[in-house]
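Dear support,

I submitted the protein below through the web form. The confirmation email said the job was done, but the results page showed an empty box. After a refresh the structure appeared. I'm attaching both so you can tell me whether what I see now is the final result or a partial one.
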Amino acid sequence: MEKFYSVGEAAARAGVTAETLRHYDRIGLVKPSETDRWTKYRRYSEEDIIRIRTVTALKDMGFSLREIGQMLETEEIGALVGGFDRALRQADERIAALEEAKRCIGRV
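What the results page shows now:
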């Protein structure tokens, strides 16, 4: 039997806040596996929690929630690879900018 988690439990397991999880549901990024028809309580599965963690990881890479939604909807591997290439270039640019800032601070 599959185990389901409340919003608070799923949020804690995924390392986000309950409000973040509710926001993801409102914008269609992560939908709960079940919603109680009487109480409207959301219930999340282990698979849902993996999706939440994936969203968090992609967000940490610098992707917007809109981009993440598009990435998770696509089944085209080329689109995903292109997104990761873009994130890698942006990370390299941020590293270069920080290294330049560090050099400037050292000169002062």
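Response: this is the final, complete result; the empty box was a page-load delay. The beta strands are 34-35, 42-43.
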